[in-house]
Amino acid sequence: MKQVMSSTRKKNVQQQRTAVLKLEMDYELAVLFEAMEDKNTAIQVKSKEKLMKIREELIKLKAL
Questions:
Q1: Host H or E run for residue 40
Q2: Considering only CA atoms, which of 48, 1, 6 is closest in space to residue 25?
Q3: Which of 15, 18, 39, 57 is least surrounded, with the fewest CB atoms within 10 Å of its CB?
Q4: Phi and psi of 40, rounded to 5°?
């Protein structure tokens, strides 16, 4: 019974983290879009790095 509860909690945590990451990704895409419009390369680079980290974490979560 403990294993079932533990796996259910783990699944819920993963689903919540995935949802948060998707929201972060949406925000970061908006930041990147604005930086592209303003032609601000420094913000573009930072935003792309953040997006890559989010992408990697999403891939890890779905692989589990």
A1: none
A2: 48
A3: 39
A4: -95, 100
